[in-house]
Amino acid sequence: MKLINIPRELVYTDRRTLDDFLREDDLNKELYKVYLRVKDKPYYFKFDAEDAFNEAYYIATMAMNDPHPELDVKEWLWIAKEDMGWRYAANLVMSMVYAILYLQQDQPEQIGYVLTIMEGQDYGEDHFPDFKAMAEQEKRRFKSDLSIRPYPIDELEYISVMHKRPISWQTVTEDFDQNNIRELVSLLQTKDERLKLIDLIEDRQKSLFALPEVKPFNIEDLPF
């Protein structure tokens, strides 16, 4: 199951404010300097900096944790466009993604493939060269937190509704396929969170099919 095909909320938890980013990682301070310089080129469009940073880190998280992210680069642009609401903002986000990935201290081999593809893309705006130049000129390398960071399970469906993309567990699990459920569960770090997710998926299956005696997943099969 590719990360691009599962709910965003199971991959990445948004930081709440711009200051959360600026306090978290020195890389973000360098990104912010370029962001301020280019955000209104070639024309002005209002969007919040924290939205751009969250979108860029969501995509970078998928890139760093998927076995073959190089196959999804074009789809990331469309995700960013849908989330940010405009192609210009999506192009800016993708430029930030490039710099984030380029400057990571420990890059999986597949990130080299991603960077090669992104260097060949025409994002159609004036700011990609600025982020690319910053990344190539920066002498430091950074170890950012690009691990999978799901929302707390108790908030998961509330957050998905708030983001206007309610989760269809039937679709996500491909009709409650146990292998797909196992992969979803493996994204979570603690036993408690994993059991909560299993209960959530079971409840949705029961309500959908009115089969309370059916369990889609055998808890004893879990690898913990």
Topology readout:
Elements: H1 18-24, H2 26-38, H3 49-65, H4 73-84, H5 87-102, H6 109-119, H7 128-137, H8 156-162, H9 169-172, H10 178-186, H11 191-209
Properties at a glance:
224 residues, mainly alpha, 56% helix, elongated
Q: Care to give the gist of this entry?
A:
This protein is mainly alpha-helical. It contains eleven helices and no strands.
Please explain how this structure is put together.
- This protein has 224 residues and is mainly alpha-helical.
- It is built from 11 helices and no strands.
- The protein has helices at 18-24, 26-38, 49-65, 73-84, 87-102, 109-119, 128-137, 156-162, 169-172, 178-186, 191-209.
- Helix 1 packs across helix 2 (26-38), helix 3 (49-65) packs across helix 5 and helix 5 packs across helix 6.
- It is elongated and about 55 Å long.
Straight-line N-to-C gap: 20 Å
What's the overall geometry? Answer: elongated
Helix/strand-derived category reads mainly alpha
Spans of at least 5 consecutive residues whose pLDDT stays below 50 are none
Classify the helix fraction into a percent range. Answer: 55-70%
C-alpha Rg (nearest Å): 19 Å
Summed up, the helix count is 11
> What is the element string, with H for helices and E for strands?
HHHHHHHHHHH
Q: Please state roughly what percent of the residues sit in beta strands, choosing from under 5%, 5-15%, 15-25%, 25-35%, 35-45% or over 45%.
A: under 5%
Average pLDDT rating:
88
For the sheet with most strands, the description reads:
none
Number of strands: 0
**What's the assembly state of these chains?**
single chain
